[in-house]
Design goal:
Strand content: under 5%
Distance between the termini: 45 Å
Mean pLDDT: 97
Shape: globular
Helix content: 55-70%
Number of strands: 0
Oligomer: single chain
Number of helices: 15
Low-confidence stretches: none
Order of helices and strands: HHHHHHHHHHHHHHH
Length: 231
């Protein structure tokens, strides 16, 4: 499967019904075809294999599905901080942002640095990417010590007053994922959530309420109890 083959599969026909469904979920469809589901994109990625050059070309096409595919086939060992910044600047939809962060960027050597850096951005999708990175790292980096995630908690508290929907949901996601990593982090995430809930902000109150409901729940605590504390 070559780059050209993949583009032909993606652009073979626009699916109006799928595009409408994507729009209902807040996905930007300006450059989308609606031709492939996420599982189909992943399947296509397996046919291409890991290919940094193909990923660069897929991203440069500007096509929504091709950019998600780029995040599937790129090699994190070849991704630079500059590439991460360029791609993040191109984010125009929450799903492309989330897939890039959780498929690729969280595996790059400077992932933690970018999580912190992007969380301080004003641009909505770049800021979202910072918090999505925190969530993705919490799930995927099994070997990381607790201190890495404890350092994210003040940043999460700072971002909790951002009223923009795509930012506040990512802030909430990061807090919940950190709190499900182990019991120590569960207790600290609950403490942060309580402090967030005292802020004079509708966004902060929503984040706190939603996070506390999950982090205090049996499922989250059971998952956290199976986690390993690494100091």
């Amino acid at each position: 499967m070559t780059y050209e083959d993949a583009i032909r599969v993606i652009t073979r026909k626009k699916n109006a019904k799928n595009l409408e469904g994507m729009r209902r979920f807040g996905i930007n469809t300006d450059n989308a075809y609606g031709s492939l589901s996420l599982p189909e994109i992943r399947k296509l990625g397996k046919q291409i294999g890991i290919d940094h050059g193909a990923a660069i070309r897929l991203w440069s096409s500007g096509i929504h599905e091709a950019r998600i595919l780029a995040s599937v086939v790129d090699d994190p060992k070849e991704v630079t901080a500059d590439q991460m910044d360029r791609w993040a600047s191109d984010f125009d939809s929450w799903d492309v942002c989330d897939q890039c962060c959780s498929n690729l960027f969280d595996k790059v050597s400077c992932a933690y640095e970018k999580a912190v850096e992007w969380s301080g951005e004003d641009r909505e999708f770049v800021k979202r990417a910072g918090y999505v990175m925190m969530a993705a790292l919490s799930v995927h980096d099994k070997a990381a010590g607790d201190d890495a995630f404890i350092s994210f908690l003040p940043i999460i508290e700072e971002g909790a007053t951002d009223e923009r929907n795509f930012v506040k949901k990512a802030v909430n996601w990061a807090l919940r994922q950190i709190g499900k990593r182990n019991m120590r982090l569960n207790a600290l995430a609950i403490k942060s959530a309580k402090e967030i809930g005292e802020m004079d902000s509708a966004s902060a109150r929503w984040i706190a309420s939603d996070a506390l409901r999950e982090l205090r729940g049996a499922a989250a605590r059971k998952r956290a109890s199976r986690g390993r504390t690494i100091k």
